Amino acid sequence: MIKVAPVVVACERLGLSVTLLMTGQHQETMQDLIDEFSIRSPQVSAMPASERSTVRSLLYWLPVAYRGVVKQLKLLAKPGVPLDVLVHGDTLSTLVGAVAGRRCGARIVHLESGLSSGRIFDPFPEELCRRLVFRMTDVAMCPNAQAADYMRLHHDALVIDTKGNTIIDAVILAGAVSVGRETNHPYLVVSLHRFQNIYVAQRLSDLVALVERLAESYPIHFVLHPATRRRLEAGGFMARLSNMPNLNLIPRMGYRDFLRLAAGAACVLTDGGSNQEELAALGVPTLVMRERTERPDGLGANAIMEAGIAEGVVQFIHEGRFVQLRHSIMDIHRDGPSHRIAEFLADEGSQYLQANS
Q1: Domain ranges of the chain
Q2: Whole-number Å distance between alpha carbons of 126 and 99
Q3: Same topology between domain 5-173+334-355 and domain 178-324
Q4: Which fold has domain 178-324?
């Protein structure tokens, strides 16, 4: 929703008809995000919303959501009017939307297309979802030239280089660009939710130990996604973390609040691809807690991979080496990637109607 929101806003400004098809994975945050971005387009629910934070709940959700999306797309389709189904990135809802859209004869427009880690099961299941959606994509909206080249080489789709990720527009709309870092009372932010980090017992234990060691020297704000909280509780880690005086456990936050917290941090430890992109735009020192990433944002500037820190994260932080990460504020334009995507959709729709009038 965060990355699609600027595209929806840009489409609304151009007068395009947009419907948000809600797949019901998150109960709490969706309406908050819609309100934060002042989205006016109508919402249609494919199924009742609930917090899907376990593997079992997602397996139950998958077929029910697919049937619900197909049903709603058939109701939305109108004879003689082009129907585009915009799906984003690499989530399970992306896959559901693409498969349902193909079944209903819609054109599949994939936002943030062409990104790949090069390993089909890493990260899992995101890379697998991404590659399946690539095969169904009619229009690939690629955030950079490398992603566009990948799609041209491997897939038969109309490829558009949007020259940037829509997250840039989201950061602007959230008003976080002007937030400065806290220098008098430096703190760290931790945000971990990837499957490979929280569902592998030894990896989760190692990450908890890392947070505990860092909290001996720095105040830490640990933002807990619902799935992360559940895994910490199941592993018996919550009591330990709750009793640490320097550690602040925070429920998942609103978008603006999280960005402002992250923007003021001395360093952020995250496994989120979107966080990597947001923090590149903000120039915040970032440790990407994964072996590899499909995203180039910030690498070689403000971001470094965990696997690239030979001495280990604790020593890296304790020595203050993160301050050496060069802050790279992206060049931000008024007519960003979201505006370019909306203009393409408006022009294509106009041409279709003229050709069939």
Answers
A1: 5-173+334-355, 178-324
A2: 16
A3: yes
A4: Rossmann fold (3.40.50)
pLDDT at 156: 93
pTM: 0.78
How long is the chain?
Answer: 357
Answer whether residue 183 shows pLDDT above 70.
no
User: Phi/psi of residue 33, each to 5°?
Assistant: -70, -40
pLDDT at 327 (0 to 100): 66
Give bridge partners of residue 299 from the DSSP assignment. Answer: 303
The pLDDT tens digits of the residues spanning 120-172 come to: 888 888 899 999 999 999 999 999 999 999 999 999 999 999 998 898 899 88
What does the pLDDT look like over 78-106, one tens digit per residue? 888 889 999 999 989 999 999 999 999 99
Give the pLDDT mean for 328-340.
68
**pLDDT tens digits, one per residue of 199-258:** 999 999 999 999 999 999 999 999 999 889 999 999 999 999 999 999 999 998 888 899
Q: Which of 11, 3, 5 is nearest to 340 (CA)?
A: 11
Which residue's structure tokens are 């098809």?
21
- CA dist 40 and 54 (Å) reads 31
Using alpha carbons, list the distances in angstroms from residue 286 to 31, 32, 128, 272. 29, 26, 26, 11
Which residues neighbour 334 within 8 Å (Cβ) at sequence distance 6 or greater? none
Distance CA 8, CA 41 (A): 8
d(CA 100, CA 92): 12
- CATH fold of 5-173+334-355 reads Rossmann fold (3.40.50)
Pairing between strand 286-288 and 43-45?
A: unpaired
Q: What are phi and psi of 23, to 5 degrees?
A: -95, 0
Dihedral, CA of residue 247, residue 252, residue 257 and residue 259, to nearest 10: 90
User: How are beta strands 267-270 and 188-191 bridged, if at all?
Assistant: parallel
Q: Are 269 and 189 in contact (CB under 8 A)?
A: yes
Residue 330 near residue 167 (C-beta atoms within 8 A) = no
